[in-house]
Amino acid sequence: MKRIKNIYPEIYDxxxxxxxxxxxxxxxxxxxxVLEFTVNLEENLIEIQNELIWKTYEVGKYREFYVYEPKKxxxxxxxxxxxxxxxxxxxKIFPVFDRQFINDSYACRKGKGTHKAADRLQYWLRKVSRKxxxxxxxxxxxxxxxxxxxxxxxxxxxxxxxxxKDLLWLLDKIINSEDMKFGLPLGVxxxxxxxxxxxxxxxxxxxxxxxxxxxxxxLNELDQYCKHKLKxxxxxxxxxxxxxxHSDKKHLHEVKxxxxxxxxxxxxxxxNNKTAIRPIxxxxxxVGFRIWPTHRKLKKKTALKMKKRIxxxxxxxxxxxxxxxxxxxxxxxxxxxxxxxxxxxxxxxxLNEFVxxxxxxxxx
Length: 364
Description:
Blueprint: H1 8-12, H2 14-25, H3 32-39, H4 41-53, E1 63-67, E2 73-77, H5 80-98, H6 114-129, E3 136-141, H7 145-148, H8 151-161, H9 165-175, H10 209-229, E4 235-238, E5 241-246, H11 249-267, E6 276-279, E7 284-286, E8 289-291, E9 296-298, H12 300-318, H13 324-338, H14 344-353
Antiparallel strand pairs: 1-2, 3-5, 3-6, 4-5, 7-8, 8-9
Helix pairs in contact: 2-4, 2-5, 5-10, 8-9, 10-11, 12-13
């Protein structure tokens, strides 16, 4: 495929910046930083445009916080104006990258997502379960994926696809931050190291829109290797979660060794001890579900979090902190999720226990 050329002016084009602003403000339009930017919208967009034209743009200061679903992650959030720049980049170059990805890569792509990924894997399981052989799955678990992406390798991949020096300058600004370390040493969690012990040469911030794009591009190298070199038919990926099906357990062990070697040598990534080979009749944990050929269930940990959240909103409603419409919106969202797995018993239990009441005397 031809390299991307002369696209940088399209990124700082005023109309693209305005559309990027609209994307960045979705579901956030009443936040104080968004309102402040919007008051002088045209002037602020022109200021960003000039910074990009004259290459004086500097990435803003990250705000750090932790989230705990599905596991503890360090999130780094940029100021609103920087999120507009991220959207301006993403709108122009991600569609080009997306056309190069394999069909069975499902993360952060239009028309894909967790439910489509679960549907695809279950379709394969139904198909292979009708065959006479015993089938197995290999589940790959990459250690601290976002925190271990190598900057030199990532920039090398981008240079293979982009021939626009100005765009590469901007992407390098985002990847190789002078003020913020994104990376972690091998084998440690974000809360186990001080800021000083984080690494400059690896890692991309969880929270950036461009990080999703970079992460997909980075493991597209693995996708292409597995599909074209290893000739794997039943291969599916959702970001750094990979499932491979095969009827020969020994072959899967050989595949695991080949993939591990590829990840170590070509991408400087490592598998962790959660990587496993098991029979498909045990059910496969993938994209928040445990999936069998005949049915799927929500992972126990996810179901417990859902119940805990529902218990919290009941208490919040009783205290008068949230409205009935807010409660209803949350519950309808959960019921929507339940349509994608075998949820009769879970839904029945939730509905039986879900009684809303206001506590006018104070909630205990």
